Amino acid sequence: xxxSAKGEYAIKxxxxxxxxxxxxLIPIQDIAARQGIPHRYLEQVLLLLKRAGFLxxxxxxxxxxxxxxxxxxxxxxxxxxxxxxxxxxxxSGHRASRRSAADHARDLxxxxxxxxxxxxxxxxxxxxxxxCQRVEQRRSAARPMYHx
Length: 148
Fold this sequence. Notes:
Layout (H helix, E strand, L loop, with lengths): L4 H15 L8 H8 L3 H13 L3 E4 L5 E4 L8 H9 L14 H27 L2 H15 L6
Antiparallel strand pairs: 1-2
Helix pairs in contact: 1-2, 1-3, 1-4, 1-6, 4-5
């Protein structure tokens, strides 16, 4: 499975917005700066996410973006599906000329399907609320504890 830059940037932007959920509209330049995403490319990604129903936005000086639904209602798989299409591995265009080679190709296709199903199960199960929780746990573990 390959995830394009568009898919990766969509996940980063959605995570950023999930971490700021309930804090109002978030300016695009803030998301771009925090996530290291080129502003112009982020505009395109956010527009696609908005069209897919994941975001609300407002134009202007006081504008920005926010999640259209709570983070626990949006899965990684839903966002990847909107950005990448199916996560299924493309079927090989190579056709085996011998029977044994065809059998091996079929075995491999079955394996690719199993791997794809496992990946889909994970991304369809993990919500942006789950990712936010992981980020917060990592941040709190990184903070030094001082005892006086």
